[in-house]
Structure prediction request, 241 residues.
Amino acid sequence: MDVATDEIAAGVYRLSVYVPQVAPPAGFTFNHFLIDGDEPMLFHTGSRQMFPLLAEAAARVIPLGKLAWISFGHVESDESGSMNQWLAAAPKAQVVHGQLGCDVSLSDLADRPPRALADGEVLDIGGKRLRWLATPHVPHGWEAGAFYEEEDGVLFCGDILTHAGRGPALTRSDVTGPAVQTEQMFRAMTMAPNTGRELQRMAALAPRTLALMHGSSFEGDGAAALKELAAFCEGEAAARA
Ligand SMILES: [Fe+2]
Ligand SMILES: [Fe+2]
Prediction:
């Protein structure tokens, strides 16, 4: 395994690991984002096993001693598994997540106390403003949430729009079609009554870049991509009701 590093938006570095054994034959990417600023953030820690590989790649972008924030959409091995390894390697860093995630899991799981954000609260990391969006159960996990970077319109949407295969780091091509196909294979999303609504709320921000955890990041009409996924999820939720 190796790490491909690409700057997908100003000061946003995608550290991507391709694993051909997951979702064969296309394989699957695991993407971790370093968001540079006066107080840099890592979004998605990667699994415990991937830590040495990712730490080495991250240190080529910023000194780990400068890393200030560690975050992720929800608690799961690929999202947050190596949280404590990062806390040990980056002595100034603190985990930041929604209030619910901190109360339910992270106040206990994290080796140093986490910083809790309210829904809609902005974390100013110096040069970038990251707004926390609490999206309970969307795509999955009670504590689920996303960050919206307001300066450049980048939505860090985690597992939302997950698609298999190893495409380019950043694409202007359709990602919703491949994401619907992958969802039909994985059934990873919670098709809850609020799923469509949460996706519509993200679409209303009109993001220009969607930073995806699995698959190519997307540049273009982020609202259209999210609305299309919302329509699919609303149909699924209705069919399963
Ligand atoms: Fe997940
Ligand atoms: Fe994930």
